[in-house]
Amino acid sequence: MGKEKAADGAKKEDKEPKAPKARVKESYDGDTTDAAVVAAARLTHMFSGYLKVDDILGYMYQIFLHIAALSISFAFAYIWLLDLERRQDPWERASVNFMTGVLVNFTTGANGVALSNITEGNNTSFSKADATAATYTLAHCGLVLNNFKMLHIFLLSIFMGTVITRTFKIINRVYILVVLPTQGYHHWEGYETPADGEEEKDELHYSMRNWSETKEGVQHSKIDHMVVIMKILTFLFIIIPDLLFTVCAMYTGVKVLGVSVGSPYKLAKQALKASFLFKFPKLYYTVFTAHNMKIYLVGGEYWIPKTQEQIDEEKERDKDVDRDGQEDLDAWDMWYSWGSFFAKVILGFSLSILWIYIKEAPKNDLEEACKVYRASNAHQAWENNIWTPTEFPNAPNEINATNIMQKIFYVPRS
Fold first, then answer.
1. Residue 63 backbone dihedrals phi, psi, to 5 degrees
2. What pTM, to 2 d.p., does this model score?
3. Disulfide-capable partner of 66 in 32, 84, 200, 345 (CB 3.0 to 4.6 Å)?
4. Domain assignments of the chain as residue spans, ordered by start
5. What beta strand segments (E) does 171-306 contain?
């Protein structure tokens, strides 16, 4: 009797499909990008009878929302960038060369004149253009001498870390699109359905409304395959727009931080404004994404199983190795535990330093020229006149232990 039950149990196990092991597992992020990718994968089955009208319209809406959110965010970042360029950034090379020329022509040598003494009048030999150039140069010298370069590097590295995190995610989604199989694993060799010929019963497998597990433990919100044509469309209309927006927002953000000199308060405020650019698409997801899709993404994941051949190769490779119950340590384990953190820190600070010392080299040159002027005889003669105000109203004394808190919380007058 016991032998018959054991035999029946063995036959039953032979009929059941093998449970696949995951090769890639990546949870969905709550944003328009993953919502659109999931929608595109599900729309593959639009003509197979698995989706109802509300499912089709819901998935199409998610793709439209993603494209609309990125288009509006891109337009906002680009208009902001054009405004920065239209105002003629004073730290560009042409402007810096002009101000450096003013400092050299008027203030150096034995007959040098302090910038504040270059005024238009009947008693002077200076023109209105000379006076305007001196005032413009003096104002920007006052700002650049209060540059707080180290704080700029720190805030820029945080912003660049945000950019790098978003870029890593885009690269990861491209990788997932490439390795996603074109068919579900139940069509693979070794994962076939039971021998009695019954086909897989997954009428609700692709519906947006079905976010729960079945009694067999199958998670319906997993993405485990996508046809080639849908991969191409996803790359062109979902991934590429995300990448273009990231590049535009990054360049706008560093330009915003680049023109923010004069006080730590202004620099910190502009850093927050720059970081807000990347929150635009997330806000569209939070406000406009369908309720069912939000629930659908919770607990779901991109799930790519190993083939039976890969599993057999691992078994052969593990025969001669004593693992002590430990799984193989692969590159992804190291990346997700500590590698990504170090990559973001190193890249964030490296890119920030390169940007400030190479791209913003004109600003640094002007700072050095203004320091030379500050030590010149012309400026020192002005400073020694106790009956006149300070020539650099926007450049307080050098930072020290006494005034550091005042500098941090300094709010310029409007």
1. -65, -45
2. 0.79
3. 32
4. 22-188+219-309+332-408
5. 301-305
